[in-house]
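Changelog-adjacent note: as of this version, every example in the card shows the full chain rather than a window. The one below runs 423 residues end to end.
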Amino acid sequence: MARIAPLRALTYNRDKVGSLSDVTAPPYDVIDEEQRRELTERHPHNIIRLVLDKPRGSGREPGEYQRAASLLEQWRQDGVLVQDTQPSIYVCRQTFSVGDQTISRTGFLAGLFLEQLGEGQVFPHEKTMPAPREDRLELMRACRANLSPVFTIYSDPGGGCADFVRDVESREPLHEFDRGSGQRCALWRVQDEEWQRRLRGLLDPQTVCIADGHHRYETALHYRNQARQASASPEEAPEDYVLSLFVSVADPGLTVLPTHRVVRSADMDQKALLEHLRATFTILPDPEEGTLAERWDALQERGAAIGYYASDGALYGIVVPDDRAEGEAPSLDSLPVSILNRDILRAFFGGSGDELACELDYHHRAEDVQEDVKQGDYQAGFLLPPLPPRTVERIARSGGRLPPKSTYFYPKIPSGLLIYPFD
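Full-length structure tokens:
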């Protein structure tokens, strides 16, 4: 079973900070330097001052972690952050736009019992790239808190758990605020022990898959293994749990955006790459009419699973073999992102294991791929369809791991919505 626990979390005091719009931030690993500076200047109590007080990759001096811990403690003493008096579970609704659609996604925040990934009921869904885990670990050691949640999805075959959670939305929210870019966030606090017991019962038979925050989970697990008292029983120590958002796979608002690739390779031979593609796959010609996104849509309607955007502006559709029986779910190896990594990027550019002999960057909009290639920063682009959440969950539950950056669950859960202190 997936084990969860209510938490006595810290929340911002509106009387001290006003709207949470001014003090929350995206997860630290998606913030660029310009946004970091803007968030720092926006409010003296913005969470960015704790989670990313310097540019990513610039490193921190040992004393800086303690300064973050001192700042967190000062905010608590000043009443900027207030700890709940009773263990609570928190329902979170995020409203956002994709294209011309307005979508709502509802989940709940609680503590997820830490266990080795894939050995119990918590599964990773994709391989991860090296990250500055030591930086996050030092910050956790100093602050003794989870400053940002892990984003998880759970199986919920009949959708009953999601329906139960959404019933809370009829109540008055604890916080409701705009996040910019057409996003709005609402948070409810539920302290009723019977409601919590029923939710835990509904979640008991479910498996949990990490949607976003693999590194945060692994850092919390590493910290738990170091900090937990050997005499403590499992599930008793505060650090046995990691602050997590849980969203049902059955939630109609659970949205995964495509993650396209751009490729940088100084000695890339465009003609040879196209010859490799034609020798390996069926290639569809460029529709030529419309924007790149519209051309990609047209190629997908004709059966393309991958799009190749060349440096001369041409877009080719790549049709991949499909030997599945009618109604059979796709395997990990047959997914477009797996085929791209194995049969195109590794086969043509080289590499071994998860390492490729070319440099990749990632975009969620076709227009950004086009811009990178047109500017000459990258030599080629590859367009991919988004993966359905059920496919992600099914592959994770079976023990499979997608290539890095295969999914982008949108929107991210903001940092600063809740903080889970280990005291």
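Structural remarks: The mean pLDDT is 92.
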